[in-house]
Amino acid sequence: MATTIELDSDEALVLLDFALRFAETDELKILHRAEKVALWNFGCLLEKQSLELFDEAYRELLDAARERLAPSDPDAT
């Protein structure tokens, strides 16, 4: 199931730069207050979309999602 999140252009630009910097440095570090604000806003939008957050099996659902995204056995995909 897909989830659609709408960001304004400022949030999108700031989060893109944050993600690109992480991809280049492998370090998650807030360099500007706007990055923290954009991440908070993004988190709020995700919370509104994620019913799993309130599911009793949240931990199991999270573990399964993580395994699908990055399998423990890289040869499994």
Describe this structure in words.
The protein is mainly α. It has one domain. It contains 3 helices and no strands. The longest helix has 17 residues. The radius of gyration is 15 Å and the shape is globular. The two termini are 19 Å apart. 4% of the residues are buried.
Brief description of this entry?
The chain has 77 residues and is an all-alpha fold. Helices cover 60% and strands 0% of the residues.
Shape: globular
Give the biggest beta sheet: none
Low-confidence runs: none
Global mean pLDDT = 93
Helical residues, percent: 55-70%
Distance between the termini: 19 Å
Q: Which value, in Å, is the CA radius of gyration?
A: 15 Å
Number of β-strand runs: 0
Secondary structure class reads: mainly alpha
Q: Helical segment tally?
A: 3
What's the helix-strand series?
A: HHH
Which band does the percent of strand residues land in?
under 5%
How many distinct domains?
Answer: 1
Protein topology:
Layout: H1 9-25, H2 33-49, H3 58-69
Helix pairs in contact: 1-2
Write out key terms for the chains shown:
77 residues; mainly alpha; globular
